[in-house]
Amino acid sequence: DAGVIQSPRHEVTEMGQEVTLRCKPISGHNSLFWYRQTMMRGLELLIYFNNNVPIDDSGMPEDRFSAKMPNASFSTLKIQPSEPRDSAVYFCASSLEGSRDTQYFGPGTRLTVL
Amino acid sequence: SQELEQSPQSLIVQEGKNLTINCTSSKTLYGLYWYKQKYGEGLIFLMMLQKGGEEKSHEKITAKLDEKKQQSSLHITASQPSHAGIYLCGAGRQGAQKLVFGQGTRLTINP
To answer: Which of A33, B5, B30, B76 could form a disulfide with A93 if both were Cys (CB 3.0 to 4.6 A apart)?
Structure first.
């Protein structure tokens, strides 16, 4: 079975550019999570969707970040404009139902903003 | 300060030795999850503990939950190079629709 799929795996961009990260959750999972991991702050939840609806976006840093889930099999995390401090590894995870169900993580997207 | 404190932050052990990683919460635990991460890869789910006193094992890895102390321990017996990586604990919070994670423990196994 395919796990959570993320693309791209690596992204290098210049400050001010728009960045779009993509995620395909495990088929049949109703919940999707976007996390950011840095050395300084560890693993932080950015936003959580349940049945394609954003439930908790309190972790989204600022208006430059936006996330969408147009259907059950696809989600995007967009940063516009990007800044060097956005450099991190971004993970997508999915679970059957809710945050208390086991979350399965994708391989991550390593973002570098120059 | 972190809601979940892991100790030690890093650990170097000789292959074949036993080791323990601890995860302590400053708040009541509602589910405790252990994950393993290798550099450049995502988190691999290891185990979930939900009830006080619960203990689960998978191969040579055992995790226990002490709800009163609000902590969990992960014990590896007869460590192998394949056990090397970063171990993270994650916990649910009452009324919160998200998990919080510890900073991770970096485990190195020396041959």
So the answer is: A33
Per the CB < 8 A criterion, the answer to whether A43 and B101 are in contact is yes
pLDDT tens for each residue of B28-63 = 877 899 999 987 788 999 999 988 888 999 889 999
Preceding peptide of A84 cis, ω within 30°: no
Query: Judging by DSSP bridges, how do beta strands A109-113 and A10-13 pair with one another?
Result: parallel
Residue A31 near residue A99 (C-beta atoms within 8 A): yes
User: pLDDT value at position A2?
Assistant: 82
Which site among A35, A43, A48 would you substitute to test the B interface, given the most B Cβ atoms closer than 10 Å to its Cβ?
A43
Q: Does A59 touch chain B (CB under 8 A)?
A: yes
Coil, helix or strand at residue A25? coil
CB atoms within 10 A of CB A58: 11
First vs last Cα of chain A: how many Å apart?
Answer: 36
> In chain B, which residues have their Cβ closer than 8 Å to the Cβ of A105?
35, 42-45
User: Is the model's pLDDT at B1 over the cut of 60?
Assistant: no
Query: Would you say B50 and B99 are in contact if contact means Cβ atoms under 8 Å apart?
Result: no
* Rounded Cα gap, residues A15 and A83, in angstroms: 5
Q: Which residues of A touch B30 (CB under 8 A)?
A: 100
Q: Cα separations (Å) of A82 from A20, A38, A41, A88, A91?
A: 10, 16, 19, 12, 17
